[in-house]
Protein: Polyketide cyclase
Organism: Epilithonimonas hispanica
Amino acid sequence: MRFLKFIIIIILALFGVYSLSMNFVDESKSFVHHSEIAYPVDKVFPQFNNLQNFTSWNDFFNEKEDASYSFFTPYQGLGSAMKFSDPKNSDHGDLFIRYSNENRSIRYQLFEGDSDNPYLIDVKFIPSGDKTKLIWNIHTPKRDYLQRSLNLVAEDFFVENIDKSMKNLFQLLGNKVDKDQLLASVKYDSVMVENREGGLLLGVNVSTRNTKEILFKNVMMNHSKVLNFVKSDLAKKDDEFGNPVLLINPANLKDKEISYFYGIPLSKRVSVSDNNFNFQTLNASKTYVIYFQGNYNDRVKNIQELLKMAKKDTLRNGQLIEEFLEEPADIQDVKLKLSLPVFR
């Protein structure tokens, strides 16, 4: 009994000391951290301004292995929003972009759990030749009296997170630069022969009117639909899937109504609850390939070149594969890899 009383007295004494010490800890804390990355600001800023990009390299989200994400329109810039949830660790929250000045500054609000008090994170971008300097201003939320001890470690936590995140972003941008250099060396409008590996695609079957005004808009809509599903619902990162592809029967390109499959390559099958999405296998094959750049509607001429070559070589062909080499946005400027599987 005496031992129990002694333990209770010790606990009360420690609680008293802790409570007293909290009088000397601010209810919120502000601090500044400087960082630098060896890429120009026009490459760096889009990684901050798009929350899907942001979560792919920011260490705060990378360490949440079982987290799921929901992104809301607009997907980039002022008004962008996302929710994250990690049931395994009882962790959830919301992230918002409250201000965005292209290549200059951005402000986030981060809510953790059910708290109504957010973290305010302001990032200033300073161009420095081929490098970008970043100034992070962090303001922690107001905390209850007994939670103020978290402010004692908040700065160390954010500094470590930012430094790790910058390393992740440097690696990500390095991969993008390699891809840009590869695209710069592509020879357009020349037919080549390649052996294409097989793969597994997750996507949607689509039917739409085949007019110059409607088709590209329909492709863009399904591109966003499939990409958002893979990134948000399946929580896949950029290095976990390949370039989106469109499969279509080239014999139907002149029909008034056209059907196609739009999908994203995945390494393996996953559980999918949305019946709008399904898997399709892409078999390994010999392919005739031509790279195209320009107005999306003008690609038909290049496709005809592939079909003529197959006919000349007395080969049958499979479904045409259209692969976007860059994120499609403007019908006037797309970069495609057109592949036509051929066989005897």
In short: The CA atoms of residues 8 and 159 lie 38 Å apart.
